[in-house]
Design a protein that fits this description.
The complex is a heterodimer of chains A (about 80) and B (about 575). Chain A is about 20% helix and about 40% strand. Chain A contains two helices and six strands. A six-stranded antiparallel β-sheet of chain A has the order 1-6-2-3-4-5. The longest helix of chain B is centred in the middle third of the chain and has 49 residues. Classes of the chains: A alpha+beta (about 80), B alpha/beta (about 575).
Chain lengths: ~80, ~575
């Protein structure tokens, strides 16, 4: 197991949210969309030039700004490097 | 009795509202279509009940203006119809539980019920009803399925005795409900889902965006031009012109009433663009120049809205929009602005901060010309050559970027990050789409046409009283000196406050060079919002920010107009 920032996940890679490193406002906004510690998410794509990251959480696709994607820490299974 | 329709964004509240009340409202496939509440009435037994379409919200802890509206509404309701997206039960139930904790009777409409079947979702309705303690009615708002049952069960709405929970407890409760009522079987990717993945991917997404916008532009132009060239202009030229010519002779070809009704004769004949009478230009401008583009623009915009493409465009545009102090979602109000600035300024409510709303509303009012003005730009400037139209649009786009960049640096605060739900692609419902197109066209006919006629009447009266001449002489140094326009052009700028399409039309009889026409179009687009936009800006921004915004507009219009004058 290792912890990665959401922005560093590869498209198609998924894991469980370990921690959200943000203020109250950010945690609330994310939680409203069902993005909170413990949830399984899968990264779908990332934009270029620090564009938004899109993820799948349950049956919803959500686009998340790059700044937030840096601060969402995801626990992923180790893959051979 | 007051019934509130509440639920997450983009679950179909507005469609259910239309079904219940018969009141038509704009519904689209993106979160945040409804930013303020709409009121309607329905018969409930003998009683007349008020129904309110509340903006969508994920929680009762608001994060933007539209959600604050929702929260404020809650206290005033007697019953809440909680509209829930059945294909996304888990996320939607959080709000449901919050509503159940309040002391207001709730009934759940489990909408998009038909989609659960082909998405392999199985929901145990009885168990869900039991666990929530309120009636749960499956519905398909777009077809009307289940609406009748929903209405019949309205009296059964109750407020179960649910204790207040904190966030974690609430999510835990949602989790245990889901575990017991929902089973999901695997389903294959549909082609719409594949297209969905492709349209947010940086490379294929950019390609799709370019194609989509280019096709949209070409279709708008093609339909607009065809309607004018094959339908409306021939109607006016062949049927209406002979009538006006007769009438002109009857009125003696000149004089006060002749000039108000028919306008000035150009080369002894009625000219629909230049005569400027109530019955000549007053009808030709709204019906044969502007209306065709209103129809074609809103047809295409409606398709983009209903398929669900706009949020994807927002994701792609996010990086660029951050340069002007906004995030990607601001592209939606901006696109709406190309139709009319009024709904566009209202739509800025989907943005989270006051700062963003100020920047977005200011940029829209300055650099996004509405469909009516664009139709006139295409009609008048286009007649001089497409390169001039390109200069007008290029300048406005440049202003949007540069001014946005300046505002981004100058306005205190920071840009919140983009965080949006991307709805699934849907095939546009053609009947609802045509209805929406009709609503918007009807809105133009009822709201804009009277103002156009009023503006032309005012223009003719002021002309004959010599008031325009006084204004023209007074402002001549700025208009002639700085902008290089004949001093009469100031009257157009004044009238621009009423209607920008009419104002641009007033430049037609002035025998301007192509360069002057370009300067005039750009200045008119930027100078000051029309009165309708002015009123919403005032309401949405407050008086101080409105004054700031207006100051920026005037300054920017004079600077850009002056520079263009030097360049052309």
């Amino acid at each position: 197991m290792q912890i990665k920032a959401l922005k560093d996940l590869k498209p198609g890679e998924g894991g469980r949210i370990a921690q959200i490193d943000g203020g109250h406002g950010m945690v609330n906004r994310l939680a409203a969309l069902g993005i909170r510690p413990g949830r399984r998410i899968t990264k779908l794509s990332s934009g270029f030039m620090r564009g938004p990251v899109t993820i799948q959480v349950d049956r919803t696709q959500v686009a998340i700004g790059f700044g937030m994607a840096k601060r969402i820490l995801v626990e992923v299974k180790d893959t051979a490097r | 009795m007051r019934i509130l329709l509440m639920g997450n964004p983009n679950v179909g509240k507005s469609v259910i509202f239309s079904r219940l009340t018969g009141v038509r409202v704009i519904a689209s496939n993106y979160p945040g279509t409804t930013v303020s509440y709409t009121r309607g009435y329905m018969k409930l037994g003998e009683e007349r009940a008020e129904v309110i379409d509340v903006p969508g919200t994920y929680t009762l802890e608001p994060t933007c203006e539209a959600e604050e509206v929702a929260l404020r509404m809650l206290d005033s309701g007697d019953v809440v119809i909680n509209v829930v997206n059945a294909t996304n039960l888990e996320r939607n139930l959080y709000l449901t539980l919050q509503l159940l904790e309040k002391k207001v009777p709730v009934i759940v409409a489990l909408n998009m019920w038909d989609d659960t079947r082909h998405q392999g979702i199985n929901i145990d309705l009885n168990r869900l009803q039991e666990m929530l303690g309120v009636p749960v009615i499956p519905t398909v708002a777009t077809t009307g399925e289940g609406i009748k049952v929903l209405v019949e069960n309205l009296p059964k709405a109750i407020s179960p005795d649910t204790k207040a929970r904190n966030r974690d407890e609430r999510w835990a409760a949602v989790g245990s409900i889901i575990e017991q009522v929902q089973q999901v079987s695997h389903h294959h990717h549909t082609w719409l889902e594949r297209l969905s993945d492709a349209s947010v991917h940086p490379f294929s997404g950019a390609l799709i965006a370019l194609i989509a916008l280019a096709v949209a532009f070409l279709v708008v132009r093609y339909i607009g031009e065809s309607l004018i060239g094959y339908v409306l202009d021939p109607l006016f030229t062949n049927l209406w012109a002979p009538v006006l010519t007769k009438l002109s002779e009857l009125l003696g070809s000149s004089g006060f009433f002749h000039d108000i009704l028919i306008g000035k004769l150009i080369g002894g004949e009625v000219d629909f663009v230049q005569s400027f009478g109530l019955l000549s230009s007053g009808l030709y401008v709204p019906f044969a120049m502007v209306l065709p583009y209103i129809v074609s623009f809103y047809l295409v915009l409606g398709l983009l809205e209903d398929t669900g493409y706009l949020p994807r465009l927002a994701v792609l545009m996010d990086t660029i929009m951050h340069r002007v102090g906004l995030h990607g979602y601001a592209i939606i109000p901006t696109l709406l602005g190309f139709g009319c600035n009024v709904p566009a300024v209202l739509a800025t409510r989907i943005l989270e901060s006051k700062r963003e709303r100020f920047i977005a509303a200011t940029l829209i009012s300055i650099a996004v010309p509405c469909a009516a003005l664009q139709a006139m730009i295409i009609g008048l400037v286009g007649a001089r050559g497409w390169e001039y139209v390109a200069i007008v649009y290029g300048t406005l786009f440049g202003v949007w970027i540069i001014l946005g960049f300046i505002l981004h640096q100058a306005v205190r605060g920071f840009t919140p990050e983009l965080l949006i739900e991307i709805p699934p692609y849907r095939l546009p419902p053609w009947r609802a789409g045509l209805q929406k197109l009709w609503m918007r066209t009807y809105g133009f006919l009822m709201e804009a046409v009277p103002i156009i006629l009023g503006a032309i009447l005012v223009i003719n009266v002021l002309y004959s009283l010599g008031i325009f001449e006084a204004i023209a002489n007074f402002t001549a140094p700025v208009v002639t000196g700085l902008l290089g326009l004949p001093k009469e052009a100031v009257t157009a700028i004044v009238i621009g406050f009423l209607r920008k399409d009419v104002a641009l039309g007033m430049l037609a009889p002035l025998a301007l060079t192509s360069g002057q026409l370009v300067v005039g179009s750009v200045v008119l687009a930027m100078f000051f919002p029309c009165i309708a936009t002015f009123v919403v800006l005032l309401r949405e921004l407050g008086i101080i920010n409105m004054l700031k915004s207006a100051g920026i507009m005037i300054a920017a219009a004079l600077v850009v107009g002056g520079l263009l004058n030097l360049a052309l």
